[in-house]
Write a structure and sequence with these properties.
mainly alpha; 10 helices
Length: about 220
């Protein structure tokens, strides 16, 4: 009996998470109440509070249930030992795009996070934590960029931190645009060529470190009274 109750609770939790995905996508997180999530799941409001203490907890669980493409890419990055860091970056970036293109749950959660959520109020702490996690992951990508510089795949004066931000912005912008209009093109099919365009641009014209130039100081001339 206890085992069955545990299984039933797990099923109820999944129903609530499925309903949250659906309603959050339709109405946005801020405008959706927990009562509306419960109704969409065919359950009572009390069932929501049995599993989740508030909307932030429900939202967090919904996000954690899906493997988001950038999270998957950045978590797999290892810049310490590879002999082809740019090749690793190509594979990771293309894999992230294919993951988004082929995983409906990742698409749903990605859309909710980036197009249906205000990053403030009761969700402010959730997004603050995600930002910290993202920064930690970006450090792994920066290690790959620095490794590429050390191995001569990028010029020695490449600004590794800025190049990392550029790669992140390109990938994030591409994903956001595709989620809005998925019929525009077959993302899974063209992922390698899109990534190659991004990497080729960084290789051809990488952001450079700006060195401080010491001002030229004129030698003082002695004047004679």
């Amino acid at each position: 009996m206890a085992r069955r109750t545990k299984e039933e609770a797990a099923i109820t939790r999944e129903q609530l998470l499925d309903a949250a995905e659906k309603v959050f996508r339709e109405r946005g997180v801020t405008r959706t109440s927990l009562a509306e999530v419960a109704t969409a799941a065919g359950l009572t409001r009390g069932a929501v509070y049995w599993h989740f203490k508030d909307k932030a907890a429900l939202f967090t669980a919904m996000c954690e249930r899906a493997t988001l493409p950038l999270d998957a890419m950045l978590a797999a990055a290892d810049g310490e030992s590879t002999d082809d860091p740019l090749g690793v970056l190509r594979d990771l970036m293309a894999g992230a795009l294919r993951h988004l293109a082929t995983d409906p749950r990742a698409q749903a959660v990605f859309e909710v996070i980036f197009h249906k959520t205000e990053m403030c109020g009761e969700l402010g702490e959730v997004f603050g934590r995600r930002d910290r996690e993202r920064c930690d992951c970006l450090l792994q990508v920066e290690k790959l960029v620095r490794r590429a510089i050390d191995l001569g795949q990028l010029p020695v004066d490449t600004d590794a931190a800025l190049a990392t931000q550029l790669l992140d912005a390109c990938m994030g912008g591409l994903m956001r645009a595709w989620v809005i209009d998925r019929a525009a093109y077959d993302l899974a099919k063209v992922a390698p060529s899109l990534v190659e365009c991004i990497i080729a641009g960084v290789v051809a014209h990488p952001p450079r470190r700006i060195e401080r130039v010491r001002p030229h100081v004129r030698p003082r001339t002695l004047t004679h009274a």
